Amino acid sequence: MKFYAKKYVTRRWIMYLLACLSMVTVSSLSIAATPKIGDSYNGGVVFYVDGTGQHGLIAAKDDMTGSSGKAEGFFNWYGAKVAANTFVDGYSDWFLPNKEQLNQIYIHRGVLGGIVTTYYWSSSESDAGKAWAQDFSNGQQLDGNKTNTSRVRPIRSF
Length: 158
Known about the structure:
Blueprint lengths: L1 H31 L7 E2 L2 E6 L6 E5 L16 H8 L14 H9 L1 H4 L6 E9 L2 E6 L5 E5 L9 E3 L1
Antiparallel strand pairs: 1-2, 2-3, 3-7, 4-5, 5-6
């Protein structure tokens, strides 16, 4: 009778330990899957994560190529909006960042790579003929004529 009681207790402990280990493993996997700033994720590089850690923004790995202006890779504001909505790295939901999102790209430009120290367009308009851009050489945001040319780094959300 004593021997049976020991087996029962031993089995219970083993089941308890296995259950605890499986919970630790599941929670570890979900933590590891949470993207962080600088991670390659869903076709780009994460540059913003919200407070929950479950949602954020991804920048394309490269600036858009082509042009609607003077030089390769430079677009007027109208062309920038069109260029940002193209199919990149298997995803078709890219868009031009707004003024605040563009500033987050500037803040985290070191983890993105390929950022040029020139002006980048945002989707934010200041009036009918002007939109906001940011100078990536010094971080200054300014409104410029929509016919001026600047670079484009499209983003998408997760």
